[in-house]
Amino acid sequence: QVQLVESGGGLVQAGGSLRLSCAASGRTFRSLTMAWFRQAPGKERQFVAGIVPNSVSTDYADSVEGRFTISRDNAKNTVYLQMNSLKAESTAVYYCAGHSNPYRGVTRTTTNFGSWGQGTQVTVSS
């Protein structure tokens, strides 16, 4: 449906910040709820943050609320994840995802997302 490419991952010390970007192709981007998920080795893919098409509503996992901020620029077909006060537990591969249908609310269920990026590695040292 929509092709997604993540970037911005890397190595950062605990307490530091990192900004991830997700570049999308396709005209449907502006109509899709977008989200970030992450997956650590040996663990299931976990919801991190979501944002509706017009940015009026966002949703965050309890573990990141207050430290992470999701945003989007529809003119640039890009969604961002600003990560502050990073912890060692934040280490994971971060994936960008697009909802399967237009103009839906934020969801935390992976099966509701039909488009996925290849992921970008975030490693937090302590």
Structural summary, described in words:
Helices cover 0% and strands 49% of the residues. The protein is mostly beta strands and 126 residues long. Strands 2, 4, 5, 6, 9, 10 and 11 form a seven-stranded mixed β-sheet that branches. A four-stranded antiparallel β-sheet has the order 1-3-8-7, with no helix packed on it. 33% of the residues are buried.
Q: What keyword list fits this structure?
A:
126 residues, mainly beta, four-stranded antiparallel sheet, 11 strands
Topology:
Blueprint: E1 3-7, E2 10-13, E3 18-25, E4 34-39, E5 46-51, E6 58-60, E7 68-73, E8 78-83, E9 92-99, E10 113-116, E11 120-125
Parallel strand pairs: 2-11
Antiparallel strand pairs: 1-3, 3-8, 4-5, 4-9, 5-6, 7-8, 9-10, 9-11
| Helical content band | under 10%
The total beta strand count reads 11
Global mean pLDDT: 97
In percent, how much strand structure appears in the residues?
A: over 45%
First-residue to last-residue Cα separation: 39 Å
Structural class: mainly beta
Order of helices and strands: EEEEEEEEEEE
H/I helix tally: 0
Q: pLDDT under 50 segments (min length 5)?
A: none
